Fold this sequence. Notes:
- This protein is of the alpha+beta class.
- It folds into 2 domains: 30-208, no CATH class; 209-250.
- It has 5 helices and 11 strands, in the order αββαββαβββββββαα.
- Strand 10 and strand 11 (179-189) form a beta hairpin.
- The N and C termini lie far apart (77 Å).
- Mean pLDDT is 81; it is low at 10-27 and 198-212.
Amino acid sequence: MKTNHLLIRNALFISFIILFNACGTFKEERTYSKNGLTVTYRSFSRFGGDIQNEIIRHPIDIPNELLGNHLLSLWHRKIDPPGRPRPVFLKAEAQGLSPLFAKAFQKIKPEKYLHFEYESPRGLTEGDAFASADKIHWRLSRINGKIYSNDPLRIRKPTWKLVRTKGQKFQTVKTAIDQKSQENWVIADFQLSKPRRKTRLSPSSETPSKPSQSPRLRKKLKTLKGLFDDGLINEREYQQKKEELLDQHL
């Protein structure tokens, strides 16, 4: 009988510890979701990157328009096979997401960073963001469902890398020989100018070409407009698909 009581007491104690830890994790990782975007406040102990020399600037009050500039300035391109640079977020997406990110930055604590996931028709885009001094860091781990991979040994097939635009630079990590750029992590000037549609990329990157005026593109746009006029898709879906078609021909 005494053994049974001991087993029951131990089981209750273990259950309490598990419940306590679960509650602590929930409190630490506060999450909210809206319009396809899920933001989680995570402790820097989970960041997994070299930020020892960074002076964290949280919380911050950043205007929606300025944050939109940051989102529109995030570009990437395929590595294997090589591809042309494309925006991470479409214009319509950036307009909808910028106030959500701005609100998240206003409420973040100094010891936290933002982990975000955005689900779009093109797939899941995932990454981390935080502010330091006069910079904002954007580290992407997945774009449109594709996980970042740029292994120089080609053990795992490379997927994509970010493309620097004006006002951005790559985060670097020290190696035994020199410094290596982390091409999924850009550090952008806080006061980032609005990028033009024909963004001028860094000299080491490819430059987007002009939108194609091919008959095939015009036909697709005409078909899309017809679907919108007939009420088969709403205005948001129409604008988003239109942006996708134009971005494919940058």
